[in-house]
Amino acid sequence: MTIHPDRLATAQDSPAPGSIERFQGALPRAAVRRVLGNDRRREVLRSLLAEDGSLPVSTLVARIADAEHDATAVTSLLELRQRVHVSLCRTHLPLLEDHRALAYDQVQGLVSPGATLPAFEPLLEAESLEGPVDSRLESQSE
Q1: pLDDT tens for residues 81-126?
Q2: Is residue 108 classed exposed, middle or buried when 0-12, 13-18 and 19+ CB atoms within 10 A define those classes?
Q3: How far, in Å, CA of 111 to CA of 99, rounded?
Q4: Domains of the chain and CATH, by start
Q5: DSSP secondary structure code for residue 100 in this structure
Q6: What is the C-alpha separation between 94 and 105, in angstroms, rounded?
């Protein structure tokens, strides 16, 4: 059995109830880099932070596909939405759920904020994606 490194969870990684501020500093840098290292995952986190509660997966798919769509591209918007849906459901949402940034209900097709989502907010706000994730992590640790 192969254990995927993104899916490893240890007792150090889990926050005590009500201690998100302490947990933010204890969030492993590798996990933060992994989570923020993809445009689609960052957009999912931004969308969840902007909402008060759960979001349908279809809403996330539409937002991401619309943002990525290029009218001059050969790929239609419908095809792009299908590709985004597959990548979110098979890769990005499970990874974000493993890092407890969100809760993904596959049956109902809903995504809800997770315990570690607030830890990513300062990094996403400070960014607008002008610098690499590593430089943002360095400035957070100082």
Answers
A1: 999 999 999 999 999 999 999 999 999 999 999 999 998 988 888 7
A2: exposed
A3: 14
A4: 28-123 (1.10.10)
A5: T
A6: 10
